[in-house]
Design a protein that fits this description.
The chain is built from 13 helices and 10 strands. It is an alpha+beta fold. The chain folds into 2 domains: 4-175, Jelly Rolls, CATH 2.60.120; 179-292, Orthogonal Bundle (Arc Repressor Mutant, subunit A). A hairpin with a 2-residue loop joins strand 3 (51-55) and strand 4 (58-62). Helix 3 runs antiparallel to helix 4 (147-164). The two termini are 14 Å apart.
Amino acid sequence: MIDSKKKEIVQRGTAFFPIQYYWNNTDAPLYNLPVHWHLDYEIIHVVEGRYKMILGGSKIILNKDDYCIIQDGVLHGDDENIESCKYESIVFNYNLIRIKNFAQDSFLNDIAEHRVVLNRIIRFDDHFIKREVDYLFDSLKKQDSGFELRTTGLLFCLFGYIKQKQLYSEDEKVLDKNKIRTEQMKTVLKLISENYNQQITLEDMAEKAGMSPKYFCRVFKETTHRTPIEYLNAYRVDQACSLLRSSDESLINISLNCGFNDFSYFIKIFKKYKGMTPHKYRNYDTRNTSDDELFFNHEQYFQSSPY
């Protein structure tokens, strides 16, 4: 069961229509999406290139025009070897369609209760539904008059198509696979998000997961495809990015506030993950960014600790 204390406080869309559209360009200097989880559902559509990601502890590749549906509570994020890619995503509260479903379709409830697991990658073999899903993304981008009604109807079409084509699994072995391991990893991600500005040792993380350090390292890398220290450093760099863009704090203070006690090490790790120095990152001018270079705003997406 997912701990409700880990839920993000960020509002998708509005309280009455909780769904949000995002455009993502992995080449944008400010783009970043670490392995994380949330209580919302997400639909990803690759527009250009291919998106290499971690989903449920496995590496997957989404090619152009592939769609991926991520259920609530599933760990996902960028693969460590991310490629040039442009993709769009929709993040929404699943109750948006459950509450509006007056027919009380049992399939929608089975999805919500995780009695079925949706296929990770969906390749449409029906031009009609492909067009309908394209309309779904277009509707949320434009948000012209009546888009709420169209969006809800198009979501119903999508889930109806998934049911018709049986693009899901009811295999109990699939449903239970890695469930305990995933919950253990979530406790570690929560530890990192709440204590990244303090000293966190490998032993601290292993103890939180209830594992020996050696076994923990293996399991963590199998799940996130990064070592625990690599993930911790990347998370600290993300927090430093937020402070660099939102405050006038000195680089040294930001380094210390994000858990880096060695300033030269902070510069080295920052350049490793961002491809530029903290100073250059702080002064990067997003006003000159073209529509094709829009980036996924990690800080807006998570806002507070989602782990």
